[in-house]
Amino acid sequence: MAETGLVHIMAAHSPLSAILAEEARFDGLWASGFELSALYGLPDMSLISMTQHLDMLRAIAGRTTLPIVADIDTGYGNAINVIHAVGEYERAGASAVVIEDKTFPKVTSLVADGRQELLRIEEFQGKIKAAVATRRDPDFLVIARTEALIAGGGEAEALHRAKVYTDAGADLILIHSKKKDPSEIVSFSRAWTGTVPLVVVPNAYPDLDAERVKALGNIRMMIYGNYGIRAAATAMKETFRRIMADGGVQNVHKDILPVEEIFRLQKMDEVKAAEARFLR
Ligand code: SPV
Ligand code: MG
Asked: How far apart are alpha carbons 213 and 200 in whole angstroms?
């Protein structure tokens, strides 16, 4: 962020998706709760355990060099759970955590008529303080995410919460909105006089591109929060449909990556070199 001003963070639900994001030159990865839940065929409602999420994050960290922003939802409980989670995520290789100010179990943010319950401000303040006190590396970022707009609390509530979370030590504020246009985000960004920069997740409002974000001046991170799983599902859906419609793979095989490309992503060349060297 210090070097480029605005960083582009792509959601990853697997090591393979992370490798593809790295090749596409994203600055970092988002260990998305939504994407991992969808990968398991589950809604994003605190059903995936911390162990499942951590296991995938470790697998991702083992296959890429990009920094990972971990989506730890509500922090798996209260401030005590946050202490445990931050220790685990930092050890697992995350460079940042995002903690959101909803009650556990949370309801996914973008669903229509979702039950969105905000946590008491004092309680969330304690969770942010606990995260900051727990991190070992001072460069490990604690990002406080307010769901005040998602919950219908309005801009004043969102600004107030963001200020309190900054005072508690948050390094950045993630402001989320499920409005189909970026007006809430633009308005919040203009009204924000806090000392820390902002993070946005343009899932619901795709029109807010990097150029417009840069013009706002105080947003330093864009997270592309569900694009990996949606792109993968789009490709699989269409390919599977065609195979059944065609009665075989005779047509579709030309339109998907050849297996040699998967070998490349798997680094088969390294295995070949190791075979030549060590298998006697
Ligand atoms: C995620 O990707 O898990 C997010 C972003 O938290 S959203 O699903 O839009 O809330
Ligand atoms: Mg999430």
From this structure: 9
Distance between first and last Cα of the chain: 48
CA of 96 to the centre of ligand 2 (A): 14
Q: Tell me the pLDDT tens digit for each residue of 69-117.
A: 999 999 999 999 999 999 999 999 999 999 999 999 999 999 999 999 9
Where do the domains of the chain lie, and which CATH numbers do they carry? Answer: 7-226 (3.20.20.60), 233-278 (no CATH)
Please state the φ and ψ torsions of residue 8, each to the nearest 5 degrees. -110, 115
DSSP string, 167-199: HTT-SEEEE----SSTHHHHHHHHH---SS-EE
Q: Which residues contact 113 (CB under 8 A, 6 or more apart)?
A: none
What are the Cα distances from residue 93, in Å, to 10, 55, 56, 140, 239?
17, 11, 11, 10, 35
C-beta of 201 in contact with ligand 1 (< 6 A)? yes
Q: Does residue 75 have its Cβ closer than 6 Å to ligand 1?
A: no
Pairing relationship of beta strands 219-224 and 198-200 according to DSSP bridges: parallel
Rounded CA separation 229/237 (Å):
12
pTM of the model: 0.97
